[in-house]
Amino acid sequence: MPPGANAAVRDRLLAAARQLAQTRPLNRLSLSEISRAANVSWPTARRYLGSRENLWAFLKQENPGLSPAEPGTRRSILEAAARVFARKGYAGATLDEVGTEAGMTKGAVYWHFATKAELFLALVDFHAARQMPRMPERMESALGGDDPREGLARILALHLSALKADPEMPRLYFEFVSESRDGAIRGRMAAGYRQAHAGMAEVVSGLRKQGRVSERVDPEAFAVLWAALLDGLCLLSLLDPERIDPERFAPQLIEVVWNGLKRRYGAT
Which domains does the chain have, with CATH numbers? Predict the structure, then answer.
């Protein structure tokens, strides 16, 4: 590091370089785009990182398993991790096995994910983005239609279809929650729930202002309870699948939820 240099600035530049390397081959990385991503000037980036060639050499030395990666590398790792976790469970899986499954070295996996927990959280986000996109908008559309109760049933059906499409993911998720003792990881999980709750609460708040749902419904409380009902139903179905069929209980769940949401007067 150059004399008088700030370690925090260098760390920020390297973090930006690593992030950009996830989206393009190394030979397409430039100091100018790294400096923009790190919010520093190009001369500062040059001072801390040296030439572009020096940066490439440093990144490859830091991670010998890294090659001029194609943009799909991260996705390939996530898809391989899903298969390994499904076979071995969260506790039994290793990053070595994920790398082998993906046809990469362990170093290549570490380039994208520092720990197994970080990889699993990214996998959870990956599945959520694919299976449950635009949920707040769908919730608003469903409850804002001519038959809000039927709309709520459609939203629940969407959740249940995602569960059926990948039954191993909920099992792995609950295993991960039960085993994780890392405060930072648990904080990230809580942040994800808070974000989901906030989106749902915003929808319910808007519908309450429109008179579509009872003014006595607390939007945040509804968002938390809706998520808890879904998680609980999912967990029970994993523990006792022969007795607890989520689709069988769905109509009764809708009745309970709708009776709490609907306006006291003029709603059926």
Answer: 7-62 (1.10.10.60), 73-115 (1.10.10.60), 132-261 (1.10.357.10)
The predicted model scores a pTM of: 0.58
Which letter does DSSP use for residue 180 in this model? Answer: -
Q: What's the half-sphere exposure (Cβ side, CA atoms, 13 Å) at 233?
A: 21
Token pair belonging to 119: 């990889």
Question: Which single residue is written with the structure tokens 């194609």?
Answer: 70
For 85, the token pair is 């976790």
Q: Which two tokens stand for residue 137?
A: 């908008």
* 206-214, Cβ contacts within 8 angstroms, sequence gap of 24 or more: 206/140, 207/140, 207/143, 207/144, 210/144, 211/263, 212/143, 212/144, 212/148, 212/263, 213/143, 213/148, 213/261, 213/262, 213/263, 214/260, 214/261, 214/262, 214/263, 214/264
Phi, psi dihedral angles at 116 (to 5 degrees): -65, -40
Q: Tell me the per-residue pLDDT of 111-128, one tens digit each, with 9 for 90 and over.
A: 778 788 888 888 877 776
Dump pLDDT digits (tens) for 154-200: 777 777 776 777 777 787 778 777 766 767 777 777 877 887 788 78
| DSSP 3-state of 127 | helix
DSSP string over 17-69 = HHHHHTTS-GGG--HHHHHHHHTS-HHHHHHHH-SHHHHHHHHHHH-TT--S-
| Segment 31-37 long-range contacts (CB within 8 Å, at least 24 positions apart) | 31/55
Rounded to 5 degrees, what angle do the CA atoms 37, 43, 45 make?
A: 40
Using the structure block, give the residue that is written with the tokens 């239609």: 145
